[in-house]
Structures are given as C-alpha cells and as structure tokens.
Design goal:
heterodimer, A: alpha+beta, 60s Ribosomal Protein L30, Chain: A, 4 strands, B: mainly beta, Neuraminidase, Rossmann fold, 2 domains, 5-stranded antiparallel β-sheet, 4 helices, cell division (chain B), Tol-Pal system protein TolB (chain B)
C-alpha cells in the first residue's frame, strides 16, 4: 500500500501524537487512541513531547518500502519508559514501509524489560512498550492484522548482569518476522 | 575392594542428579534472640542411617529463626531417652529445650521414639513414636521439627511443606527453563516441567495438589494447571495478549489472573469449573499480580493508576477499592499473611528492591532483611517466614527472611538461576 502525500503527513502527525502519548510512563495512556493528533489519550502533563521535535521523520525511510525485511530489528528504551526514542524512528518507519509493501508479512513485536522490579509487573510494562510500537505502525498505515504483541517482560534478557549496560540492552522491542 | 568401589559408583550415580538440582541452605543472619535448644544426635541401633535425622531437625529449627541449636561439640552427654537426661548438664550449657531420640530398624524402614524436654522446668513436654519407610527419613525428621516447633511456640510448624520455583540456564534465545518442586529445605527436588520458553508465576492450589503457572511454550503466554503427583495438566487460558499472574482462591474453585484481552492488563476471576470469567478492574493503567485475602472476600493487586505501581485492595462484594501503600514510589506483588493482618510485598526504597511487610491496621511498612534485587515474596502457611528471589553474585537464588526480619537464609542452586518461589499450603 502506497500512501498519498497528505495521508502520509496525517500519519506523521498521528505518529507524533502517539509518541507524545507514549512517553508518559504513568498509567494514563489508553490503548484506544484513534490516530488523530490532539485526540484524547495524550492528556497527561508528563508527555515528553520535547523528545520528538525536529527529527524530520517521514520523508526518507518510509518511502524505502522494499521486499527485504529491514536489518535493524531491535529498538531500545529508556528506564521506565515506553517512549520511542528519536534515533529509532527511522527503524520503525522502515518496518512500517516493509509491512505496507508486503501485506502478507506478519511480525511479532516482542516486548522486553530490564530485571529491576517485579516480574509480572514487568511483563505488563513489556507489553506497553511493544504496544507503543504497534500503535506507531498502525498509524503509519500498517494493517493491525499483520502485527501481534507478545511481552516477555524480564524473562528473556539479551544480556546478563546487574549493571546499566546490561539493563540498556534488555529494555527493548524486537521485530520477529 | 572392587565390590566397595562398585557400591561407591552406584552411590555417586544416585546422588549426582540430586546434587545438581537440589538447593542448599546458607544461614545469612541468625536471630540473636533465638531460643537455645539442643538436638542430640539420635541413637540408632546397627549401622548408621543414610540421613542424619538430628541434623535435619536442628537445621529446620535454626532456619525458622526461633531457635539457636547447640553445637554438637558442646554436648558432653548424648542421652537418647528422658530417663537418661541429667538436666543440670544442659542447664550448664544454657539450653532451654532438649530433643532426644532413639531409632530402631523396622523392616526396610525405621521406628523413631523422640522426646522433647523443658530443661529449665525439668519436665517432659512431648513424646511420640513414628514409623517411616527408608525413603521417608527426611519427612520423618520434618515431622519431628513440626511437633517440637508447635509444642514450644504454639505456632503450627511448616517444615513438612514444599516450595515450587523456576530455574533457568543460558541467555537470550538459548535459555532453558524448568519448573521444580522441592521440600521447604530445598531438598528432594523434582522437575515438573521443562521448556525452551519462559515459565512464570507458579502458585499452589489450596489443597497442595496442583500448580497453576504461566508457560510461553506455544510462543505466547498461557495459564496452565498441573497436578503435581501425576503431571497431568490442562491449559486454562490462552487469550490474546497477557495471560499472567494466576492466584487460587482460598476455596480452590476460582483463579484470579491478569489478562490484557480487552486492552490494558486487568484483573479477572475465572470459575475453574465453568471457565467463566468475571472482570474485576476497569482502568486505562496496568493492573496485575492479584492475591486473595485469606477469607476470600477481597483481592490485593498492583496498579500503576497513580503513576507508579502501588497496592490496592478490591472488596469483591461491594466493589470498593482502597489504596493500601503510600510509602515510596514502588510497591508491588503483594501477598497476605495467613492471618490477613499484614501484607508482604516488594518495596523500592533507598536500598533498592526489598521485601517489606506492611501492617494493615497501622499502615506502617518495614523492610525485611538486606537481600538485594528482591522479587516474588511468598509467605509460609504459618506466617513465620517469607521466601523470595534475590541475587548472589550474578546468579538468581532464593532467600528467606522471618516475618519479623530478624533471621534470614539463602538457598543457592548448584548452577543457573533460581527464582519465583511459591510456598505450598500445609500438606498434612
């Protein structure tokens, strides 16, 4: 599916809205965001919209939809956050482009956390992280039927160790095709 | 010589798998106010028993935090029956209580006659004769510990209970996961499930016959119920999204759980017989880690509706919800003590993630022990100890702390990580 320019800019605006909403780490994001900027669900005072300003997303990577699965399949998160960091927007757009161009392709978004905190709560946080990526893909025009979220919480760390380096590698969402 | 070596080889082979899977015990902090007790080595007729019964009893009593067993080297008399005891010998050693016993062979098994004596009062408190098969020697010792503990403290002993826990080895895609049950002292471990996908949240049915847990074996989390003795199991839920944190109701008929089938993780209660679901919470935040009050009338759960995780209590009849925790920004995975008057939880304070107890009436929260990165507290059925997961070096190990925080111990495994302990109910 190739988005028309105005549709794409709508998608970009909606992505920004999603990201602003997602950067709240509290319990206020709701899963029913309807993909229009300024809609409900962004209403908390803690939204870190400053993180996503001026990153010029949308024009480059999203057009590079191809038949190849993008090579970068892991994005990382800050502590206690499900905000998509600006440096990973192009990664997400590449996957969105691939999934739009290949409607038969399906991806599992695997959400992971670091080891700190309780396991079952971390399982929920991992789902929230993967859910933020799912919403980003949806507003970029990816069909919801192509995307599934599975949270592993802290159960499958990529790196061992109780230090910030390991923690940073473990707070991640993996695109599993 | 050759015959002797063969025997040794057989013994080694028999012991090897146990030695790898069993947990050992390291007492990390004894209770200074523990009551001195002497457990005299049991007098056995004929060849020595394969299990040092008096050692098992003394270790049980020491682990409870209530007792400080006397060192054997200090015992200059080794009586095996009350008539042979000179109380002055034990008063000189400051022992308050004394356990003596003699063991006779009976077929393949043994007959144990033990007695508990009050050294200060110079009286006999308890005497019992128990028989045990050759494979029940440790169980017999735990029974003695239970009886001694109750006779002195008035609290039912929980030494004959079991624990379930999850182990893992490796990292990333190659991690292997197992679910075990073992005696409360970490011995007699038995694997009940093994998988190359995560296993989480084991929890006992109130009759001690079944475990509920979460397994990712299909690539997605699902809740299973498994009979411990037969290994027979059934998949109870596999909804879209999270299927997590199962918790049995005290009557054993319902299972509380966290599901995200309707969006965010919410608390549900399933009637196990009919598989009917009742949704308990409705909130745009995370709700998980449900636990039942001992009377079954309310649920405790974690919610981050206030911004960070805190504990809430939901009255099932009225639907009223009360926030319970206000100390600090992170309080999660709460469990009721058996009297319903206190909850045990994970609290993040200046010292990181610690096990804590909060008394419900006063609201006062106190950290228990000094284990770091504590997770998954589970309360002994008599309320005296809390077992939990912690770290030792770079490995996950189990730890336990007395409910008053005075005594603690660790149960490290020979290899890999151990976590998510669940203390069984009383089994006898």
């Amino acid at each position: 599916m190739q988005l028309k320019p105005y549709v794409r800019s709508l998608a970009v605006a909606a992505s920004l809205a999603v990201m602003a909403g997602c950067s709240s780490t509290g319990g206020t994001q709701d899963g029913t965001m309807d993909g229009t900027a300024g809609s409900g669900g962004v209403g908390t005072g803690t939204a870190g919209s400053g993180q996503v300003s001026g990153s010029g997303l949308g024009e480059g990577a999203a057009q590079m939809a191809s038949s190849r699965i993008p090579e970068v399949r892991t994005i990382y998160f800050a502590f206690d956050s499900d905000a998509i960091r600006p440096e990973f927007q192009s990664v997400l757009e590449a996957h969105a482009g691939f999934l739009r161009a290949n409607p038969g392709a399906e991806v599992i978004l695997q959400g992971h956390t670091d080891e700190r905190g309780t396991r079952e709560y971390n399982l929920a946080l991992g789902e929230r992280r993967a859910g933020a990526v799912e919403r980003f893909l949806n507003v970029q025009g990816v069909s919801p039927s192509q995307v599934e979220v599975v949270s592993y919480g802290e159960e499958r760390p990529a790196a061992r160790g109780s230090n910030e380096e390991a923690y940073a590698q473990n707070r991640r969402v993996v695109f599993a095709y | 010589m050759r015959a002797l070596m063969t025997v040794w080889l057989v013994a080694l082979l028999l012991c090897a798998p146990l030695a790898q899977a069993d947990l050992t015990i390291d007492i990390t902090r004894g209770n200074e106010r523990a009551t001195p007790i002497a457990v005299v080595p049991f007098a056995a007729e004929g060849a020595a028993l394969p299990v040092d019964l008096a050692r098992v009893v003394a270790d049980d009593l020491e682990r409870s935090g209530y007792f400080a067993p006397l060192e054997r080297e200090a015992m200059f008399a080794r009586p095996s029956r009350a008539e042979d005891v000179t109380f002055g010998d034990w008063q000189a050693l400051d022992a308050r209580y004394l356990v003596v016993a003699r063991v006779a062979r009976q077929g393949d098994g043994v007959e144990i006659r033990y007695e508990l004596l009050d050294v200060t009062g110079e009286s006999r408190m308890l005497g019992e004769r128990i028989t045990a098969g050759a494979d029940q020697l440790r169980a017999a010792a735990h029974r003695i510990s239970d009886q001694v503990f109750e006779a002195i403290t008035g609290i039912r002993g929980a030494f004959s209970t079991r624990i379930a826990y999850v182990t893992s080895q490796g990292v990333g895609e190659d991690t292997a996961y197992q679910l075990y049950v073992a005696d409360a002292d970490g011995r007699n471990s038995q694997q009940v499930l093994s998988s190359d996908q995560p296993i989480m949240s084991p929890t006992w049915s109130p009759d001690g016959g079944k475990l509920a847990y979460v397994s990712f074996e299909t690539g997605r989390p699902a809740i299973y119920v498994q009979e411990v003795a037969s290994g027979r199991r059934a998949r109870l839920t596999s909804f879209e999204g999270l299927n997590s944190a199962p918790a049995w109701s005290p009557d054993g008929r319902r299972l509380a759980m966290a599901l995200s089938r309707d969006g965010q993780p919410e608390i549900y209660v399933m009637d196990i017989g009919s598989r009917q679901l009742q949704r308990i919470t409705r909130s745009p935040s995370i709700e998980t880690e449900p636990a039942w009050a001992p009377d079954g009338d309310s649920l405790l759960y974690t919610s981050d509706r206030s911004g960070g995780p805190q504990l809430y209590r939901h009255d099932l009849a009225s639907g009223e919800v009360e926030r319970l925790t206000y100390t600090g920004a992170y309080n999660a995975r709460g469990r009721f003590g058996p009297d319903g008057e206190a909850i045990f939880l994970i609290h993040r304070g200046a010292n990181g993630y610690r096990v804590a107890r909060q008394d419900l009436e006063s609201g006062r929260l106190v950290e228990l022990g000094d284990a770091r990165h504590a997770e998954s507290p589970s309360v002994a059925p008599n309320g005296t100890m809390v077992i939990f997961a912690t770290q030792q070096g770079s490995n996950g190990v189990l730890g336990a702390v007395s409910a008053d925080g005075r005594a603690s111990f660790r149960l490290p495994a020979a290899q890999g990580d151990v976590r998510e302990p669940a203390w069984s109910p009383f089994l006898n």
